[in-house]
Amino acid sequence: MLLTFYILGTVSVLSALGVLVCRSPVYSAMSLVCSFFCLGGIYILMNVEFVAVIQILVYAGAILVLFLFVIMLLNIVPTGESVRFNLPVLIAFGIAVGLFAQISGLFLGDIQFGPKDVYTAEAISEEGSIGLIGRLLYGEFVLPFEAISILLLVAVIGAVIIGKRRLN
Amino acid sequence: MIAIEYLPILILIGLGVVFATIFTLAGILIGPKRRGQNKEMPFESGLPSDGLVGQRYDVKFYMTALIFLIFDVEIVFLYPWAVKFREMGWFGFAEVLIFMVLLLFGLAYAWKKGALEWE
User: Fold this and answer.
1) B55 contacts in A (CB within 8 Å)?
2) Which residues pair with B47 in a beta bridge?
3) What gap in Å lies between CA B68 and CA A71, rounded to an integer?
4) What is residue B20's predicted lDDT score, i.e. its pLDDT?
5) Domain that holds residue B27
6) How much is the average pLDDT of B77-94?
7) Does residue B63 lie within any of the structural domains?
8) What is the CATH code of the structural domain delimited by A2-118?
9) Based on the structure, what is the number of domains in chain B?
10) Picking from A7-11, B40-44, B101-105, B110-114, which range would have the lowest pLDDT averaged per residue?
11) Between chains, do B63 and A163 touch, taking CB under 8 Å as contact?
12) The CATH number of the domain where B16 resides is what?
């Protein structure tokens, strides 16, 4: 169990590094798929099968396809030039450092990890994580659930408007 | 406890890796190799190659992928409902119906605007 976690974690971190190190953007994207799959495995180890399935279905499936289409759309040819530290790179670096600091702060602070309230590991495995998510999503959180449909509607319309304007 | 449940998936992944490796290696090792100057040349349907290998793709692919992604996420939210279908009853059905109808407007809009057409 712990060994599996270490293997998945190592491969995940290494392939995430590969995303940064690879010269060709397509290789970077493929490295990202590997990282996503390892994260999916880690989710399974954490007993959240539904999130694991979504991770692989949506991230490794659909979002990676989107990434690849962007890469193919822009057709970036690897030039072999190293990245110079211009303003956008510095801004991105600053944001990344800030995000890392914030996440580190979360771990260092007194945040509670693991099962909360009634949702212990036994309760989840008894009902199944999908069933539990379903009960909460369609029971307690109805309004956010319906709001998601509006969010997705906005996304569809936005995509069509932007895409169609470019086409004409 | 978890290891036994996911053993079939592990076997599947293992077999996939093994078969891919075997066939790739077999192709390299036992396939005939007849090299020649003309055979090594890059070609493009018999004509001298024109431009780079990576061609710029049409934005249509991106549009289709984006619309696919959105409806993919919709299915993700229907998944727990499918599991809890009987328990939820008519209330759950009404909820999901509202959810679906709102998204159907999006589909209708995309259809009307011709985003689903492949011209």
Assistant:
1) 75
2) B44
3) 18
4) 95
5) 2-112
6) 84
7) yes
8) 1.20.120.1200
9) 1
10) B40-44
11) yes
12) 1.20.58.1610
